Amino acid sequence: MRGVKAMLPALVAGALALAAAGAAGAEPVKIHIAWTVPIANWGSILAEKKDLARHLGKSYDLEPVHFSGTPPMITALATGDVEIADLAYSSLALAIENAGMADLRIISDELQDGVEGHYSQEFMVRSDSDIKTVEDLKGKVLATNAAGSAVDIALRAMLVKHGIDPRKDVTIVEAGFPNMKAMLAEKKVDLIPGVLPFSMDPGLRQNARTLFLQKAAIGRAQMLVWVGRAAFLDKYRAAMVDFMEDTLRIVHFYVDPANHAEAVAIAAKVTKQPPERFDSWLFTKLDYYRDAAMIPDIAALQANVDVQQQLGFLKAKVDLKNYVDLSIVKDAAQRLK
User: Fold this and answer.
1) Overall CATH class of domain 122-218
2) Residue ranges of the domains in the chain?
3) pLDDT tens digit string along 182-207?
């Protein structure tokens, strides 16, 4: 018996050593992160600052995946093709109600619209247009990126506020953001939504003017949030905390005014556009609001989803409090203090 007791410390030490070796030899967790708009979405530029990602290639590997919009991300989440989706408030609610994804969890902020002192998306008409008020849109052709999208919800909410029935009084057509400037110039549509970075195009600014801002339609908007599924987040929590720690470090770099020149150079490289397109506004007060701690405004998000339901895109009210888990990003933030 004494011999066994004497051996216990060695056995425990050996077991711990084997466990550590196993953990060290484990394959990094693959994290596919979805994004849509270059620069505006963190997923498009995280890899440009790999030097700040201390856990990359160790506990996790990152693979950004481009999508044309947020609705297709719902399918990708359901099939496991992405682990982190960058969902607009509109597609988040649809994923919960229509796709029955009760295990979705909001894990962080991406960007917010209409925050005091920051950019709010513009709805623009031609400079020579006779459209002076929202009421003047009656009978006109309006562009949106996709029916039921966050931008589309804001447009329809503004029309309803001004006594215009979006289904009867106007024609709404879908188009990709990169094509909207030409469609407006060629008079194929009378109004387009201006979202960053497209709304800062000098050619567009020269030939168009802003009719109204999105915040006039729906107030402060939690436009985009990072969302994952509970099973993945629970199983790979340690790797996710590592990933969020690296992400926070990279986000802090981008939003720091001291790094503005390098951030602009990265934006120019990623988009293949001249740096002058970004220098005056990128990651400044003229840009969307991005919470440096990546904490979303859940109250604003709930209000946005409520508007979606009021406009008939949701059958019933979606209560978001059951779909929030900010513990991962908060634990990651503690490491940076």
Assistant:
1) alpha beta
2) 7-115+221-272+289-335, 122-218
3) 999 999 999 999 999 899 999 999 99
